[in-house]
Write a structure and sequence with these properties.
Elements lengths: L3 E3 L2 E6 L6 E8 L7 H9 L3 E6 L17 H12 L4 E10 L1 H8 L6 E7 L9 H11 L9 H6 L19 H13 L3 E7 L5 H10 L2 E7 L23 H13 L9 E4 L4 E3 L11 E4 L1 E2 L3 E6 L23 E6 L4 E4 L2 E8 L3 E10 L5 E11 L2 E8 L3 E4 L5 E8 L12 E13 L4
C-alpha cells in the first residue's frame, strides 16, 4: 500500500504473506523509496513494514523542523499501525541518522518491542563540515538537495538559509539530552550500529552505554548519510558484514522473541579485523604515552587567506603537502588502542583560537587518511591544552605509521580564525588507552 495518509503524513505499508504480524516502523526525512529494498527483505522474514515521510518532508504536509520533538507524530503513527487488522499489536523501530532520532523519540509507546539504531543523530560534538552538509543537502526544505554542500563552499553567500551559524552546542544539546533520557527509560532490546569512520561514532557508543539491553556493532562502513565518500576514496572500506543485513536479521530475531543481546562486534582499524567483543571503551582506562618524533618546539602560523585545508574523510591527506601552519609529529613503536586518545601540549598564542589535533594513518604506500580528530579552545598567553579525539579501535600493522597533526582550525571541518594567529607548541604528549582489551 503506497501513499497511505495518517494524520496528514504519508506512509507506505508493506505486508507479509502471513497476517497478523509485528510491524517495523521507520519515520524518515530522506524519502521512503530508498528504504523499499529493506522493506521487501523484512516482509520476506514475516514482518509488516510502515515507512512514513516526516512532517514537512517529501509527500507529508506541514513544516519540517530539524530536531523538533518527534514523539507526538511517532505515537500517532504507532497508534494507527497497531489498530490495523494486519497488526499483531507489536512494533519495532528502525532508522539511520535522523531516522534513529525519530525512533528514540517514540520509544515510550507501549507497542514497542525493540529499536535498531544506525549511526544516529544528533552528534555528541559537531564538525562544521558535517553540519553544513546536513543543513544544505538534508535538513532544509521538503526534498533532498544533493550537491548543495559543494556549491555552498564555492560561494561567498550561502545558497540556502542555514539558521544560526556557525553551530554552537545549542544546535544539538537539547536533542541529545532528549534522546539520552528516552534511551535510559526504555526497557527494550536495542541494536546500536556505528562506524569509526563516521562523525556519529561517539554518539553510537554513548547511546549504547545508556541502553539497558544493548547489542553494539562498530564497523568501518561508509554511506552517503554518514560521510561524503569521494570518487578518489583512499579508505579501505570493509564490505562485510553489511550493516543493513545486520539490522534486518536483528529485527527479525526480536520479533520472534529471541534474545538478541549476544553478538557484540568490533572492527579494529588498521588491521581491519573483526573481533567478537563490546566496542564500548572502558570509562576510565589507564593511559600510556606513545613516543613521538619531531621538533620539540614548533610554531603554527595561521593565514586566514589560506587556512589549513580539511579534505573529505575518504581522501588522501598526503595531497596537502608541506605547510607552515601545521605541527606534524610521528608516533613510534606499536600503535594500538581502543577508546579516546588525548593530545596534551603547552601552547603560547597571541589570539584566541581552536587547536585541532588530527590522528593520521599512513600506509607503506604513503597514503594518509584521517583516523580521528578533536579540538580544544586556546586563549591568549601561555598554558596547557588537552584535546580529546573521537573514540576509535586501532591496531596498525608493521610498516604502517601514525602521525599527530596540530593545526589552528582545519577548514571547512573546523572553524579557522578570521585573523592571523601564531601559536607556539611544545612538550607534546599523545596519550592513548593502555593497549587493546
Amino acid at each position: 500500500m503506497i501513499d497511505v495518509p495518517v494524520d496528514g503524513l504519508v506512509a507506505d505499508v508493506f505486508l507479509p504473506g502471513r497476517l497478523p504480524a509485528p510491524a517495523v516502523v521507520v519515520r524518515t526525512p530522506y524519502g521512503t523509496a530508498g528504504l523499499w529494498p529493506e522493506a521487501d527483505a523484512l516482509t520476506g522474514a514475516g514482518l509488516a513494514v510502515v515507512l512514513q515521510d516526516l512532517r514537512g518532508r517529501h509527500r507529508s504536509t506541514g513544516e519540517f523542523q530539524a530536531g523538533a520533538d518527534e514523539e507526538a507524530d511517532g505515537h500517532t503513527l504507532l497508534d494507527w499501525t497497531t489498530a490495523q487488522p494486519w497488526s499483531d499489536g507489536t512494533t519495532l523501530l528502525y532508522g539511520t541518522s535522523y531516522e534513529a532520532y525519530a525512533a528514540w523519540c517514540a520509544v515510550a509507546h507501549p507497542s514497542v518491542r525493540g529499536v535498531a539504531s544506525r549511526q544516529p543523530w544528533p552528534p555528541v560534538t559537531v564538525a562544521v563540515d558535517e553540519e553544513l552538509w546536513w543543513r544544505t543537502e538534508i535538513g532544509g526544505g521538503r526534498q533532498l538537495r544533493p550537491g548543495l554542500y559543494d556549491l555552498a563552499l564555492s560561494r561567498p553567500v550561502w545558497p540556502v538559509p542555514l539558521g544560526a551559524w556557525p553551530p554552537t552546542p545549542s544546535s544539538w544539546r537539547t536533542q541529545a539530552r532528549r534522546t539520552a533520557s528516552r534511551i535510559r527509560a526504555a526497557n527494550v532490546p536495542s541494536l546500536h550500529l556505528g562506524s569509526w569512520y563516521c562523525g556519529s561514532a561517539a554518539t553510537t557508543l554513548r547511546q549504547a552505554s545508556l541502553a539497558r539491553r544493548a547489542t553494539v556493532v562498530m564497523g568501518g562502513w561508509a554511506s552517503p548519510l554518514t560521510h561524503r565518500l569521494q570518487p578518489e576514496c583512499a579508505i579501505d572500506v570493509p564490505v562485510d558484514p553489511d550493516p543493513a543485513e545486520l539490522a534486518l536479521s536483528w529485527l527479525a530475531a526480536v520479533a520472534t522473541g529471541a534474545d538478541p543481546r549476544p553478538g557484540h562486534r568490533c572492527l579494529v582499524l588498521g588491521s581491519n579485523r573483526w573481533e567478537p567483543r563490546d566496542p564500548r571503551p572502558s570509562a576510565r582506562p589507564p593511559l600510556r604515552a606513545l613516543p613521538l618524533t619531531g621538533r620539540a618546539s614548533s610554531s603554527i602560523d595561521h593565514d586566514p587567506a589560506d587556512p589549513y585545508p580539511s579534505l573529505p574523510h575518504s581522501a588522501d591527506l598526503s595531497a596537502v603537502g608541506p605547510r607552515a601552519d601545521v605541527v606534524r609529529l610521528g608516533a613510534t613503536g606499536r600503535v594500538a588502542w581502543h577508546g579516546t586518545a588525548r593530545a596534551r601540549c603547552r601552547v603560547e598564542t597571541d589570539r584566541p583560537a581552536e587547536l585541532v589535533a588530527t590522528l593520521v594513518h599512513e600506509t607503506p604506500a604513503g597514503v594518509r587518511t584521517r583516523l580521528s580528530d578533536g579540538t580544544a579552545p586556546i586563549t591568549p598567553g601561555s598554558g596547557m591544552a588537552e584535546i580529546r579525539c573521537a573514540p576509535v579501535a586501532v591496531d596498525l600493522p608493521a610498516g604502517h605509521a601514525l602521525h599527530l597533526e596540530l593545526t589552528v582550525g582545519r577548514h571547512p571541518r573546523h572553524t579557522a580564525p578570521e585573523t592571523p594567529v601564531s601559536v607556539t607548541v611544545s612538550g607534546v604528549d599523545l596519550l592513548v588507552p593502555g593497549g587493546r582489551r
